[in-house]
Amino acid sequence: MNIPQNLHYLKSHEWVNVEDNIATIGITDFAQDQLGDVVYVELPKVGKIVSSGETVAVVESVKTASDIYSPVSGEVLEVNSALENSPELLNESAYEKGWLFKVRLDTLSSELLDAAGYAAVAEAEG
Amino acid sequence: MKVLESLMRTPLHAKHLEKGGRMVPFGGWDMPVQYSGVMAEHLAVRSSVGVFDVSHMGEFCISGRGALEFLQFVTANDLSKLRVGRAQYNMLPNARGGLVDDVYVYRLNEFEYLMVVNASNIDKDFVHLSQLKAGFEATLENVSDQYALLAIQGPQAEATLQPHTHTDLSNKKKNDVFSLELFGKEVLLARTGYTGEDGFEIFCNPQDSHALWDALLEHGATPCGLGARDTLRLEAGFPLYGHEFSEDLNPLETHMAWAVKTGKEFYGKAALLERPLKHRLVGLELEGRGIPREGYRVLHNGKDIGYVSSGTMSPTFKKGIALAFLERNLVFGHDLEPGSSVQVEIRGQGVGARVVEPVFLSKSV
Question: Residue B41 has what pLDDT?
């Protein structure tokens, strides 16, 4: 299972990477594998103020729709518009080309896990 | 979470695990929803050939001098002209204008029929048919355990099987059923399926199922799971019991109403014909972005006019498609015509959709 050490995670399978006060958010490799072929992604509007724990995006596979929760609070700065026409990037590259959105960081969720903590969650669900 | 009730397994269960099938509970069975991925499996069936384990489906044998008479009584379609070696789509009406199940009936001999029923309805159907059997000179037997059932589907299905049987498949028509030797095994082969493609269903001895599965994969068939089975049937506009049919839904509100033959007598006929037609099953093609899902509401001029019974992202057409029950007589006493604009409510937003005939695939067989 691919769980990079440098990221933080929610137990609902989102990852977050913070650099220079900008948080980049996506879903984990485990999550994309469980979902199967991703065929549609609904992203937040740029400028939206999101709160940690809030549903901010939806990722849909052929079979189901999954809510994506924000691991941070702050203002949405950018969304990955490449996903509109190529949602399969989430399957191919969950931690890089498949990122979902970036937020100007206000606060981090208090429920973030490190890689080892998330590995235990994924292990239990897999 | 602990699974309290143990799931049933088809004879091919070990093969699914061996191939990396992702197993899910389905109608009491532990079945593969996918192997490599729903999209790839779906497209393999549309462009080449795929194989499905559908051994969870039930089979009943109805035999005896009164078999036809019994079947005519319990089904809505007319079996009187079905010749030996032919199969027919059919329905089991209940007493209140709905369906106990929708089924396929294969005539194997003059006095012997095989009925294939939905996996989750096996017990219910058997009880229902047993209760109606009194007075008919017919034997009803649940032979589900005697068969494994493989569906080989796609434009390359015939070419995949032909080198491995002495029987000429090229002159076998849709809905033909016949015995033959395939890969050295005695099987019953039917030119039927649930994908909208040409293909065959292979009824075989469970003991032969592993050898046949391996042989089909070795000769190029892609193993396919229930996920692709659902997207394929939806593109072809085939109804699924529990979605487009139920004990309460009226089959005359669907495009399968042709299978209800009012010229014959059958159990539940009066109740079926007395029910008012309130809805009509239509197809919807999403024009905006999003995926219609079962249960989503359909709006017309801001008014709630019905709901999605089955929906998905179509792997073939790369857009959202759905079957939906819409109210009748919406526009000046007329139904919404194909081409009409409606909206599907997705997470509180109305997304534009076009009403179409409930068959998306033009080449559907």
Answer: 98
Residue stretches of chain B with pLDDT short of 70: 1-5, 363-365
Token pair recorded at residue B218: 């070795």
A63-113, pLDDT tens digit by residue? 899 999 999 999 999 999 999 999 999 999 999 999 999 999 999 999 999
Q: Is A126 part of any domain?
A: no
Q: Tally the domains of chain A.
A: 1
d(CA B70, CA B62): 9
* Contact by Cβ (8 Å): B27, B120: yes
Domain that holds residue A25: 8-114
- Helices B38-47 & B226-235, crossing angle to 10 degrees? 50
B313–A62 C-beta distance less than 8 A: yes
Does the residue A119 lie in any domain? no
B175: which 2 tokens?
A: 């809905």
A3 occurs within a structural domain: no
Nearest to B212 by CA among B186, B179, B235: B186
pLDDT attached to residue B1: 46
A63 phi, psi to nearest 5 deg: -90, -35
pLDDT value at A46 more than 90: yes
Residue to substitute from B291, B294, B321, interface A, most A β-carbons within 10 A: B291
pLDDT of res. B4: 56
Question: Within 10 Å of residue B158's Cβ, how many Cβ atoms?
Answer: 17
CA distance A126 to B17: 15
Show the domains of chain B with their CATH numbers: 13-55+147-235 (3.30.1360.120), 58-138 (3.30.70.1400), 278-356 (2.40.30.110)
Burial category of B100 from C-beta neighbours within 10 Å (exposed 0-12, middle 13-18, buried 19 and up): buried
Closest chain A CA to residue B289: A40
Q: Give percent of chain A with pLDDT exceeding 90.
A: 96
Q: What is the value of pTM for the model shown?
A: 0.93
Question: What is the DSSP track for B216-260?
Answer: HHHTTPEEE-HHHHHHHHHHTT---BTTTB-SSS-GGGSTTGGG-
Q: Complex ipTM, two decimals?
A: 0.85
Query: Is A18 among the domain residues?
Result: yes
Q: Which H/E stretch holds residue A105?
A: strand A101-108
Q: Which residues of B touch A39 (CB under 8 A)?
A: 39, 291, 313
CATH (domain of A75): 2.40.50.100
pLDDT at B3: 52
- Write out pLDDT tens, residues B14-33: 999 999 999 999 989 999 99
Contacts of A40 in chain B (CB under 8 A): 289-291, 313
